[in-house]
Amino acid sequence: PPRPNHHYSELSNMNNGVNNPEVVAAKQTLWSTPPDVIANHVSKVTHRKAEIERRIQQGAWNEVYVVVVGNNRYILRISRDANLISKEKSARDLAKAAGVPVPPTLDISPVSVNGKELIFELTEFIDGPALHEVIDLAVRKDIIIHAGLLLSRLHTIGCPTYGAFPSDETGPKILSLFRKGQISFVNSSLAQISEILHIPPSDIESVAKLAKDLNEKYDEERPVLVHMDFLPRHLICSVEKKQVVGVLDFGNCRSASPFDDFANWIDGEFALSDLLSGYSNHDLVNSPDFAVRMA
Length: 295
Prior knowledge:
Elements: H1 5-12, H2 21-30, H3 35-46, E1 50-56, E2 62-69, E3 72-79, H4 82-97, E4 105-113, E5 116-124, H5 137-154, H6 171-188, H7 190-197, H8 201-217, E6 224-226, E7 235-238, E8 243-247, E9 254-256, H9 258-264, H10 272-278, H11 282-285, H12 290-294
Antiparallel strand pairs: 1-2, 2-3, 3-5, 4-5, 6-9, 7-8
């Protein structure tokens, strides 16, 4: 039966609350870089007068602003974590090399604000609606299919320099250990998870056993770059071209299994079957055990 969304929000609190809208909103309220500091920095980078158009209230890690310079718009992200900005920049560079459209980075600079060093990242603004804002169902279907192609390109990338898993010879072993750690977490948290999601502990135990069996079967699987937030709101589209023209927000990317991105996709009105029809690794999508792994 359907379960209220707040149960999932409660469950996300077990992961530091980064997916909890209330936690995100609270963090955003605490962060407020002076507008003159923002405008002056962007003016310095672009050598033209800059003005803040609006603040985008989204994300648990950064302040995000749309800044106007002449007839151009830019995105300025302000982070308290230099490693996060560096990881995302590396991921976008790899994605671009693989043929995935991403916002070009114009500048990354440390800026001192009230005695604290913040990281300012300026990128180009990609104009267009996000996928969830596309109304025409036929156009949306074509865009989702194109998104599947881009996701398959992303999954050709190994990423030994960042993320949870290196892609060298130790990758499969670390991936296996991580999965075993997840299974241990589920088994040790049965009561809490059962209470939050209103699912019988026996059902959760069955899922944990399936995960254990799959972990043993795919123990040597080599991890690839996964986005982890490959969702309609992070896909900027061209309705005319019926394509994704920008993939945003690599903040949660890691080296892991392609199935992590498949499982995170929102099915229903954004059909997973359309996404998979565009996915170029047909051997993976058409494998006999695909449905079992998705379960």
